[in-house]
Amino acid sequence: MRLPIRFSRQEPGLVVSGIGHAAILVAGLVAFASAPPFQDHEEAVAVDVVSESDLRAMTKGERTAKEVKPEPKPRADKLAEVAEEKPAPADSKRDVPTPPARREVQAPQEDKQAAPPQPPQRPEPPKQEAKAEPKPEPPRPDPPKEAEAKPEPPKRPEPPKPEEKPEPRKAEPKPEPRPEPKREDIAKLLEREKQEEAKKAAAKPVEPERKFNPADIAKLLESKDKAQSTGSTGREVNRTASLGTPTGNAPKLSLSQRDALGNLLKEQLASCWSPPMGAANANAKPQVRMKLNQDGSLMAEPVVANSSGDPAFRTLADSALRAVRRCAPFRIPPQYMPYYADWRDWNVTFDPKEFLG
Amino acid sequence: MNPADVAQSALPAVGSEISLWGMFWQAHLVVKLVMLGLIGASVWCWAIIIDKTLLFSRSRRAMDRFEEVFWSGQSLEELYRSLANRPASGMAAVFVAAMREWKRSFEGAGRSVASLSQRIDKVLDVTIQREVERLESKLLVLATIGASSPFIGLFGTVWGIMTSFRSIAASKNTSLAVVAPGIAEALFATAIGLFAAIPAVIAYNKLQADAAKQQARLEGFADEFSAILSRQIDERIAA
Known about the structure:
The complex is a heterodimer. By secondary structure, chain A is mostly helical. Chain A folds into three domains: 1-34, no CATH class; 74-241, no CATH class; 255-356, Fusion Protein Consisting Of Minor Coat Protein, Glycine Rich Linker, Tola, And A His Tag, Chain: A, Domain 2, CATH 3.30.1150. Chain A is 31% helix and 4% strand. Chain B has eight helices and no strands. In chain B, helix 3 runs antiparallel to helix 7 (139-171), helix 4 (76-84) crosses helix 5 and helix 7 (139-171) packs antiparallel against helix 8 (176-238). The chains are: A mainly alpha, B mainly alpha. The A-B interface holds A 10-18, 20-21, 25, 28-29, 32-35 and B 1, 18-21, 39, 42-52, 54-55.
């Protein structure tokens, strides 16, 4: 073997190869001087779809809450700039006389969607539980009320809750406007309107386009600072998320309970239903979806949930809807109350054979 | 990068050095030897590749030139005289060997032409053999490097990973940051092995084919030349 140092023109291989390898080595030292670290991967934002029952379970609230509200509402710190307007079937309900048996105290929930444009009704929230508490301002004189409306201060100032954020401005109680009107006589409305007008004239400059709220005055006097947090928005201001509702964690009906309740409702409906002639041998089975209040009254107009090509279907479905309207409010035994979330939406199949036979 | 720097940078933190030199320096002695051996093999194999490529192209050009001259109608005696004095290779060597045998047979006192044709064939065979051997020498080294250096590199890797795992067992720390540098430097050995082996295998196949082609060309020329010489012999015997 030849010495590697000697360079011959005939066989320059070793020298060339050695130089080449040295060059590659140097290039490698430069290129691999440092390993590029992995890039930090970005965290994905998880998005959950919250079903209605989940939402209800979320409104369950806390054990330490002072009171329980009959209606669950998601927490909202301020009014949404753009209100999500849903089609309000209640608009038509204004014209249609309500079922005679409905109790007035329990205003249907849909009414509050239609109500806000009517100023006279707003500041008079009906309360089931009367809570008279000392307030900084003298309570507004109550307009005359009907017998079942309990005399009460219009606003329920809530004590500052410990769960609220520690900043003093945020923690101060903002009374919750409850624009839940109830059905009243026109005369009564007019009478109240006059009283309200006088009051509003004094209080309006504070917040002209929002709801008038005497407690706001005190709040505005106390602090002019801006809120630290923008807060969550909603259709209405609701500071009472922690209070929860009795039906909050939405227990489910067991199969047998569901069966029993279904039979109960069917029994009641059967007495109200007068199917059209020849319905007994029709094949159509209209399915009516009704939304119920806790007292068994209808929360919204019942709707037909299915369709069919059967010519008799239309008349059958109309008669079923009539039956549901006539039957409301349904008698629902108190043992089903905790399961309200489960039977709030109830579908009834009006099978003529089953109902009549 | 001088050794003092390397020693400083490599000693304190085990996982810190990830440059090429750092990987080499932290490796176990066996792995280091494997790496050095593989680098040496790579240098050698490339030296052979370069030499052989040059040799083959040179010898192909020489054959082309010789055939041109040979078939140009030039007298064989003149050609022999011009070639005999300098060392020849390839076809020229074959031609010179046959012509020398031819001349010796006629120049001697006793004209021994009876088995001249056989003797010339023998001489041609031997010369071709020698030439082919010259062409093919060291090609086996390429084959050996191509076949064995992956295994050598793998041996270095296995050894390095073994060492790495022993260190893990000793330090009782299994996080990837601790394991990774050792494995990287171990894999470096396989990388060098493949770096040496791949060109060796490719070049071996190519050069082997070239050598076979040149050998076939030499044999073809030898057959033709031997035919010419035996015709001359027969003519002389008849004359």
